Each structure stands twice: as C-alpha cells, then as structure tokens.
Amino acid sequence: MSDAFFERALAAAREEGDRMACLRFEGQAAEGLDLSDITCRETVFQGVHFAGCDFDAAAFYGCAFSQCAFTDCRLPRSFWKDCRLDGCKADGADFRNSRFRDCRFTGALLRYGNFSAVLWERCALTDCDFTESSLLEAAFKKTVLEQTNFTGAELFRASLKGLDLSRCTLDRVVLSASCQELKGAKINTQQAAVVARILGVEVVP
C-alpha cells in the first residue's frame, strides 16, 4: 500500500502542472504509482520504498535520495541533474535512454538493471554495483568511477573513452570482439589480462 501523504503530494503535483518542489519524504512507501512526466526539484527522499512505480520521462533537479529502494520500477527516459543517491537499491530497474548530469552515486546497488543508451555526464560513481546489468551503448563523459563493480555487465558498444577504470571490477564483462569499448580508457594490469583473454591472447607469467 502506498503512503497517503505521498499520494496526496503526487495528486497536488499533477494539479500544479506535474511539478513537485521543496518537499521531504521520509520512510514513505509508494506502490504502483504513476510518476511519469513528473518534474521534481530540490526534494529529499529518505528511506522511501518505490515498488512497481512508473517514472517514464520523469525529471529530477537537485534532489537527494538516501537509503531508498526502487523495486520493479520503470525509469526509462528519465532525466537527473545535480542529484545525489546514497545507499540506494535499484536492482533490476529499467533506466533505458535516461540522462544523468552532475550526479553523485555512492554505495548504490544497480544489479541486473537496464542502463542501455544511458548518458552519464560529469557524474561520480563510488562503490556502486552494476553486476550483470546491461549498459549497451551507454556513454560516460567526464565521469569518475571508484570501486565500481561491473562483473558480468554488458558493455557492448559502450563509450568508455577517457575513463579511469583501474579501480573498478571488470570480470566477465561483455565487450565486442575487438574490445573497442576500452579504447582510450585506463585499466590496470590485472584487467589487461581479462581483455587479453577476450582477444584470445595468452598471457604468460
């Protein structure tokens, strides 16, 4: 069941031209709600659990999410600007064709998600987990990655040029046969051995 306070705030936002601003939600539950096309500004979400919600084409500006969960949620074509996500869980969420600009992710669980054709621009991702997620044709521009786990992630045709991946986990990543996705990226010697195996090169100790 959704929290009545959150539902009232959403209803008010619809009446105000799909706009929500300068609010704080703490410990609320939102289940099966339609948040598509909502524009949310300067709002804090603390421990909010979204379940089966639709955020298609929603936009967030200057918002903060802490210890929130997005369970079975759809967030395609969503836009995020100057947002912070700390300790959030969005396993299996659908973020296809979304845009993140000047955002900071810390300790986020993003496993088994769909991040195909997502643009990450001037973002910082620290201690995040993309295990077995799809980042098909995703693009990273001027983005910093620290201790981020891409184990089993699909990075086919992703744009990673200029990224420092040396402090990330790249085990079993899916790349093109030529590993062109890593062209212009920085990797460490252990990761180079993983790439060599993909290329069919035998590394002799």
Could you characterize what this model shows?
This protein is 11% helix and 25% strand. By secondary structure, the protein is an alpha/beta fold. The chain has a seven-stranded parallel beta sheet with strand order 1-4-7-10-12-14-16. Strands 2-5-8-11-13-15-17 form a seven-stranded parallel beta sheet, with no helix packed on it. A three-stranded parallel beta sheet has the order 3-6-9, with no helix packed on it. It starts with a helix and ends in a 7-residue tail after the last helix. The model has no long low-confidence stretch (mean pLDDT 93).
Task: Please outline the helices and strands.
Layout: H1 4-15, E1 19-21, E2 24-26, E3 29-31, E4 39-41, E5 44-46, E6 49-51, E7 59-61, E8 64-66, E9 69-71, E10 79-81, E11 84-86, E12 99-101, E13 104-106, E14 119-121, E15 124-126, E16 139-141, E17 144-146, H2 189-198
Parallel strand pairs: 1-4, 2-5, 3-6, 4-7, 5-8, 6-9, 7-10, 8-11, 10-12, 11-13, 12-14, 13-15, 14-16, 15-17
**Helical residue percent?**
10-25%
Distance between the termini: 58 Å
How would you describe the shape? elongated
Stretches where pLDDT is under 50 for at least 5 consecutive residues are none
| Count of DSSP H/I helices | 2
Strand percentage lies at 15-25%
The order of strands across the largest sheet is: 1-4-7-10-12-14-16
User: What profile does the largest beta sheet have?
Assistant: 7 strands, parallel
Number of strands: 17
Q: Structural class of the secondary elements?
A: alpha/beta
The sequence of SSEs as H and E is HEEEEEEEEEEEEEEEEEH
What's the alpha carbon Rg, rounded to whole Å? 18 Å
Q: Can you give the mean pLDDT?
A: 93
